[in-house]
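SAMPLE LOG
Freezer: B-3
Tube label: C17
Construct: single chain, 153 aa
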Amino acid sequence: MALPNIFSQEVTASIIERIQKLTPESKPLWGKMSVSQMLAHCCVTYRYVYEPQNFKRPNFLMAWVLKKFIKNTVTNEIPYKKNTGTAPDFIIKDDRNFNQEKTQLIDFIKRVQKEGAATFDGKESFSFGKLSIEEWNNMFYKHLNHHLTQFGV
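STRUCTURE (predicted):
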């Protein structure tokens, strides 16, 4: 079963509507992140796309491991399990400004939708090499849906 199309205006609006329901007091149903940390965590996926210069690229061996063992888990349609581990860049330990992180995440989501699926067709990802539109869609949507569900929205 295909995941909803994050490149469509309807799905983007639905995701943003869910984000808008979050408050600084929102608590997770599982996990340890605060809502502000979760929003910052979700932004990392988009920072990899739009700000790759701010991250250290994986070396050859790590890139091979990511493509061979992690890529399919991130880009397939199977939902993430609760309390699944994450890459170091995605671990947010410090407090973050809720409104700033929420605005940044919404801006990233809108930017992806506006640029459209064709922009991502065969586009090189930071960690996994070239991805298809479907793989990009799954990665973006699945991650957002997982964490919004984590916070009950």
